[in-house]
Specification:
The protein is mostly helical. It has helices at residues 3-16, 27-51.
Length: 54
Amino acid sequence: MPDEEFAKLRQELLERLDTDGPITQLTAWQKLVSDIAAAMQELTLASEVTSNPT
């Protein structure tokens, strides 16, 4: 399978993924969600610091 075809199929699978469905029971998914939330918090704090230097 060519890389482009694989990438397209992967994208379709991700778009169809029910993020509120059974996947929420997977430890790996829970960790991913937690890691994304932590990264977003870090980015928000960093953005606030650069926007409001003291």
